[in-house]
Design a protein that fits this description.
Helix content is 3%, strand content 42%. With 391 residues, it is mostly beta strands.
Length: 391
């Protein structure tokens, strides 16, 4: 059994002086945006748990609010919200909060480990169930835009999933699937109502986009085999997720822009598995990737579209070889640079929700690690897996 922290909530802030010195001269392509105010203070913040071993950030907004889940003393993941230096539960259990608007409206899923999981929304202290058709046995909400349109999935009686939009959190819109599709899921939405996710057939999982007027199409280029998944779309229409380029070994964090797709980058020269989970309106992206295909863990990355290079961030443990992940990137508090929200190893195998402030200022090149050094290790999926890591 993993040791547990003695305090129910640990609000420790790790200020790594050597890390700040080492990264203060980051390349200009990775320099934080500045408004002429006082320099950013790079910090690695441990948001703690509810008495259990693990917690994670799954979404964030521009006002410094993060949402996700935290284990209670019984190990049950509880949807929570972090604002400033306080953690707040959302009146639901066994699930996670996936996203939050700038106004503070939260969406997520409760009872996630049961066949009857249910999508919910929360605002100002009160949780509400999102409407579910009578034919659906379960529901889950993943993202929400600033107009309170949420997206996620409904589960049929046969266990397959269909993508869905909850317009203004009230009206259910089941998104169309192509004739040969077995299932699909909606994973991202922008303020124009464009929705992205994936569609599964007998031979492929395909990154997909649904338009607000009812249009539906695969993201180009369309691969008829292999794996691709779109997880986020910004207001420019840029889409990011993961792609194996038609069944090639490995998985790359990728971005679809201007009608074509390209890798966001990779760690080192070896093949790896990577996926973009979060992004902003100007092309900053975060997610997780392995250093090699045989790496034991995922590691957080941050990049800017077009740079072609992934940088990593130090886990709470202080060891770049330990596990870390990121789901959201937002402007730093005070308008300086960007902050990244995710989770990382605290040094004993437990995973805590983590915030990296002034992220580009403390971004690091990944350590040199070869497939041989990592051989025999297992590539684990992250906790709220979106089925992104498939060899």
């Amino acid at each position: 059994m993993k040791p547990q922290r003695s305090r129910a909530v640990s609000w420790s802030v790790v200020v790594a002086a050597s890390l700040v010195v080492a990264t203060a001269s980051a390349p200009s392509a990775y320099a934080d945006r500045s408004s002429g105010r006082a320099p950013c203070a790079p910090r690695i913040i441990d948001l703690g748990t509810l008495g259990g071993a693990n917690s994670e950030i799954d979404g964030g907004n521009r006002t410094g609010t993060w949402v996700g889940s935290a284990d209670d003393a019984n190990g049950v993941p509880t949807p929570v919200l972090w604002r400033g230096d306080s953690m707040q539960t959302l009146g639901e259990s066994d699930g996670f909060a996936g996203d939050v608007t700038n106004a503070g409206v939260v969406v997520g899923v409760a009872n996630a480990d049961t066949p009857s999981s249910s999508a919910f929304w929360w605002y100002r202290g009160t949780a509400h169930s999102l409407p579910t058709p009578s034919w659906a046995t379960a529901s889950s909400a993943r993202r929400i835009n600033q107009h309170n349109d949420a997206v996620g999935t409904l589960t049929r009686k046969d266990g397959s999933s269909v993508p869905v939009e909850w317009r203004a959190l009230r009206t259910v819109r089941v998104l169309p699937l192509p004739a040969d599709a077995l299932s699909g899921e909606a994973l991202g939405i922008n303020d124009s109502g464009h929705i992205v996710g994936d569609v599964s057939t007998d031979v492929a999982e395909i990154a997909w986009e649904w338009g607000p007027g009812g249009s539906s199409h695969p993201l180009q280029p369309e691969y008829t085999q292999g794996f691709s998944q779109a997880n986020i779309i910004n207001d420019r229409g840029w889409v990011a997720g993961g792609l194996d380029f038609g069944g090639q070994f490995g998985l790359w964090a990728s971005v679809w822009r201007y009608g074509s797709v390209s890798k966001l980058g990779q760690f080192g020269s070896d093949l790896n598995f990577g996926f973009a989970f979060g992004g902003d309106q100007i092309g900053d992206y975060v997610g997780a990737a392995t250093y090699t295909t045989d790496d034991q863990f995922l590691h957080v990355f941050i990049t800017r579209a077009g740079s072609g290079t992934l940088r990593t961030l130090m886990p709470l443990s202080g060891d770049l070889l330990e596990r870390s992940n990121a789901h959201a990137v937002v402007p730093s508090y005070g308008g300086q640079g960007v902050a990244v929200g995710g989770d990382s190893d605290v040094g004993n195998g437990d995973i805590h929700a983590t915030v990296w402030t002034c992220a580009y200022q403390q971004a690091l090149a990944p350590p040199a690690i070869t497939a041989r050094a990592a051989a025999g290790a297992r590539v684990p999926a992250w906790r709220h897996s979106l089925n992104a890591l498939r060899p």
